[in-house]
Amino acid sequence: MSTTSPAVLTERKPELIGQTVVLIGGSAGIGLATAHRARAEGAEVVLTGRNSERLVNAAREVGARSTAAFDATDWAALERFFGDLPAPIDHVLVTAGGPTYGPLLDMTADQVRDALSDHIVQALEVARYAAPKMRPAGTLIFMSGTGGRKVSAAGGIVSAATAAIPQFAAALALEVAPVRVNVIAPGFVDTPLSASILGDQLEARRNELRTTLPIGRVVAAEDVAALAVHIMINTALTGATFDIDGGQQFVS
Hints:
- By secondary structure, this protein is an alpha/beta fold.
- The protein is 43% helix and 17% strand.
- It has nine helices and seven strands; from the N terminus they run βαβαβαβαβαβαααβα.
């Protein structure tokens, strides 16, 4: 008679133990969801945001190591933040800021210049000050979007700005290596920012997406957070752009 030994169940170990994750725009939405996910994987988290009250509440919620309240487009403040941050750090996710929409001919030359360069300049400045403090396997993660890939009169400049980010990130990945650089490109994500933009049209948009997206549901901040943490953990990923829109770009 043969006997078999019972399977030994082993608990999966958290994969970010001993690492530090910095969330630029970490007081709400995708940034805060990523802070929760990173903490669940054993990381220490540092949160930044413009709203100091919301930042304090978020830090208490996730047990953040520290916080800093400043505008991420203030380059002097950004430099001070990373200068004061104890090294080493491992990963930086930037969710602060947003795209610019509108007809091209309604924009001034300065507005066009800003719309094309804002995200790239912000990413460059973050890399400039963060990379020297990062461990080699760490990653800088920036945000883009799949919605901006569709050229339209209503979207205006956003499609051109969106197209530049993946190539910028790939080139930056070569310059700051072995620190890694990656981009997350969501579609619609159900966050407080989306709610503030859509107002009383929010529920209609949710219902539309539930019936049209191949996944049959709306993408949540936690979905994007799971992807962000996977990119942090998987050290083979660099110079890449990862779509997460539930198939929205194929059915919109």
